[in-house]
């Protein structure tokens, strides 16, 4: 939000000192669509989790164990007032890793219409920022096979062999030290 406000102040400055027409065009382009991320409640993730992660399944299947714990955080990515992406961060220890402060990402999803536009990257970065604020040392998760290249671009590494999650498909454990 601070960055958006700074941008707005620059545009106001340009309005009075540079080219007013350029300002109006730029203003319309920049502010017609507002995209932002903020913390949300678990239930607010379901409208994205269901079509992306649980298509054809009942909405109840979108509830994950630990969703409502005080140590869990959920973030929603909004386009104007519509939620289009979500990520959840759980304080969960994986016994295969020695780091003490571990967090697990679950329910990472962006509606299909908005995929491949860099929005998923912003959600992962928000999750990483949250973990850093909590003094976390490691982020891990179970990534769908199709998502592995996406996470590798963000410097996550696979650990171990692939495994199957019933009715969902092949997954890999991935991790990154923060």
TrEMBL record:
TM helices/strands, residue ranges: none
Secretion signal span: none
Lineage top rank: taxon: Bacteria
UniProt entry keywords in alphabetical sequence: Transferase
Transferase as UniProt keyword: yes
Record has Secreted as a keyword: no
Sequence ranges assigned to domain N-acetyltransferase in this UniProt record: 31-178
SUPFAM superfamilies: Acyl-CoA N-acyltransferases (Nat)
Pfam families, alphabetized: Acetyltransf_1 (PF00583)
GO molecular function terms noted in the UniProt entry: N-acetyltransferase activity
Entry protein name: Acetyltransferase (GNAT) family protein
């Amino acid at each position: 939000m601070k960055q958006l406000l700074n941008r707005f102040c620059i545009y106001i400055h340009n309005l009075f000192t540079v080219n007013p027409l350029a300002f109006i065009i730029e203003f319309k382009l920049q502010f017609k669509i507002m995209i932002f991320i903020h913390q949300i409640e678990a239930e607010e993730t379901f409208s994205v989790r269901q079509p992306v992660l649980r298509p054809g399944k009942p909405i109840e299947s979108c509830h994950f164990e630990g969703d409502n714990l005080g140590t869990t955080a959920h973030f929603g990515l909004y386009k104007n007032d519509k939620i289009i992406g979500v990520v959840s961060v759980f304080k969960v220890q994986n016994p295969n890793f020695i780091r003490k402060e571990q967090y697990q990402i679950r329910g990472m999803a962006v509606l299909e219409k908005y995929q491949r536009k860099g929005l998923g990257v912003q959600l992962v970065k928000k999750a990483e920022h949250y973990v850093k604020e909590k003094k976390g040392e490691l982020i891990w998760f179970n990534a769908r096979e199709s998502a592995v290249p996406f996470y590798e671009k963000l410097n996550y590494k696979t650990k171990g062999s692939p495994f199957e999650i019933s009715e969902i498909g092949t997954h890999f454990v991935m991790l990154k030290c923060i």
